[in-house]
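Quick one before lunch.
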Amino acid sequence: MKELTLFSRAREHSRRIAIHSISGEYNYDQLIKNSSVLAHNLLAKKDDLEETHIAFLAAAGADYVTIQWAIWRAGGVALPLCLSAAEPELEYTLTNSEASCVVATKNESIKVSALCKRLEISLLILEETYAVPEKSLPEVEPSRRAMILYTSGTTSKPKGVVSTHANIQAQIETLVAAWEWQPNDTIPLFLPLHHIHGIINVLSCGLWTGAQIEAFSKFNSRTILQRVSENAYSVFMAVPTIYVKLIKAIESQDQRDRGKVIQGFNQMRLMVSGSAALPASVHEKWTTLTGQRLLERYGMTEIGMALSNPFHGERRPGAVGHPLPLVDVRLKAESGELVSAENEIGEIQVRGPCVFNEYWKQPEVTAESFEDGWFKTGDMAVIETGYYRIMGRLSVDIIKSGGYKLSALEIESVLLQHPAIKECAVIGHLDDTWGEVVAAAAVLESGTNLKLNELHDWCRDNLSNYKLPKKLILVEALPRNAIGKVTKHAVKELFSQ
Ligand code: MLC
Ligand code: AMP
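Model of the adenosine monophosphate complex:
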């Protein structure tokens, strides 16, 4: 039987350790075997899941891979859920995606069991699956849909980005080639696994290559620095906030521990930053501290990675390099002309096999997101002496905080449900650690009062931790332009005063 390349490659890696975590070591054969058992449980009496959406909830580790691979091998579409999501967020994702089933580890199932019951969605607990007589698994063509990831954008509610196996394979292959992934690579995985950075760049590239992944349920600088000082890793990938946090942690270490950590970072063959702008000052500080030149790259859920500084050659602070193999990139100026000269600003547009299939159930939004077959990213860039530099986003309603993309509109719609809030505007306020933090300006109903910590607590039931407002100012009226629309640029200025 012809199977997807990811799995035929995994069979070749057979006894090599794939995943190492607190729950033990798993080799590639075990992942193939365990995912086969779960795939048969998912199929029950069917021959093929025929692109049914299967949501899942598992911490980073072998269980996560078992579930993801089982869904793919049974012909389903994998929808990884956010471990820190609030219940209304999970409810939206499950209902919008029309997920037919949730698979969860026993530990994580508590977060969804009541919800699944209420929504009448079946919940399969991984530890309760059992060996069933094996029959052959379906042959899954690469052109079939594989994954749906929810991403925030210019619409209030997150959109489901649907990618095919061929998209995922192209996203992996381009990075494996460009960054020269090796079977003897070892990499820590501490990024959330409902987003492309952790799923594709770390987990899938590693497993494709036969490398070893050390999985952590969340980022903890002390644990990571300890393992780095033991020379545990050859490759490291993180968002800029993590590098800022690591710099602070290293600087607070005593001389002896610091020496070992620096040596551990220094001996790595590759360290990458992405998902948000890496300030040139942080890039340079990291080089001074560890001797490592970070490789900054640019990507997006809809397209995988598009631009990267070179593996060999100059890794320029403040720049994101050149188009990756298999990726076509162009810049389109506001005038509608294609940018043909250096230092002229334009929107990044991307074409190629890495580009996603569609936004789930949003054919119009999908169509509007493309122009002559090129995906419009909404990010602006220039080319400076041969290197792309990101200049910001077209929409002020998109916030990047700690590497998470957030919709100001989604947060506003929750804040407006607060009984004291009459009007509000949410923006991203520049921050040295988080890139941007969520900041809200609010007009209150007369006779009411509101403090930031009260708002924070009130929002907790509806929003993930990283979406909660971190700043609040109360105003008499929101600044508006001539046609009465709230001007977010003026709101940004309010916070800068
Ligand atoms: C958490 N805190 C924040 C915050 N998030 N404060 C401001 N802004 C934020 N965004 C605060 C909490 O309130 C808490 O405060 C304290 O920080 C610790 O919270 P935490 O939840 O434990 O945070 P931590 O685990 O340290 O999270 C930091 C992080 C995480 C950087 C590890 O944000 C993260 O994993 N980010 C990566 C997201 C990612 O993978 N994005 C890729 C998307 S794909 P207190 O006061 O209570 O202690 C993509 C495409 C591409 O972008 O190109 O890759
Ligand atoms: P997401 O929708 O979560 O996949 O986030 C994708 C967005 O992250 C892009 O559209 C960019 O705005 C931003 N991004 C990713 N990498 C970089 C980078 N190196 N520099 C600046 N912004 C980045």
